[in-house]
Amino acid sequence: MAYTLTDCIEEPDYRYSLVARTDARGGKSLAVVQCNPSRASGTRSDPTVGKVSNWAEENGFGSVTFLNLFARRSPQVHEIRHLSYVELVGPKNNEALARYTAGASTVVLAWGGTLPVPDELYRKRLAELRELLADRRVNRVGPLSGGRYPRHGRAWNADNRKLEPVEWSELLPNNSFKPTPLRGAA
Fold it and tell me: What is the rounded distance in angstroms from the CA atom of residue 72 to the CA atom of residue 64?
């Protein structure tokens, strides 16, 4: 199995998208929405990019685009936990999410249960994502982590490899959060 990083939209402190091409034949494309990016870039991979790209190839996807709820780049929670909502989301994140999910064959949510943001900000962003992807079927790989979070790509192991649809009501019980109108990052 092999993959090649082919495109990355980033700016200081933010990564909006990262595209990997696999050796799978065919035109299927995968968009994976994670929580926030680590240090992977157009020239540097990381364990999550590798694991998800291999899963994508095994499942016939010729490309995988990595996107995020929050585009602020950091592998360490303490580096970003104090930032404002707008700083966490990033000024071009909604544009990247809309563009790449619209063109994807399949959209997968994958961030696990260890979140770098307070629950209120997570629920607000999730409600905005639900609005942004209103016309798209969304999926998860494996069962929900903790019964609430779509499994992180690094945890797509053994019995946690099956692609399945996920309902927003599983992620936002009782539609518990109403989004603000989508404008840029806020």
Answer: 20
Q: Give the CA-trace dihedral at 161, 47, 150, 29, to 10 degrees.
A: -70
- Rounded to an integer, what distance in angstroms lies between the CA atom of residue 149 and that of residue 172? 10
Q: Which two tokens stand for residue 170?
A: 């599983």
SS3 assignment, position 31: strand
Residue type, 134: A
**Residues with Cβ < 8 Å from 136, sequence gap 6 or more?**
101, 102, 107
Q: pLDDT tens-digit profile of 101-139?
A: 999 999 999 999 888 888 999 999 999 999 999 989 999
Tell me which H or E stretch contains 10: strand 3-11
DSSP-based three-state secondary structure for 168:
helix
pLDDT at 67: 98
Q: Which of 17, 122, 36 is nearest to 75 (CA)?
A: 36
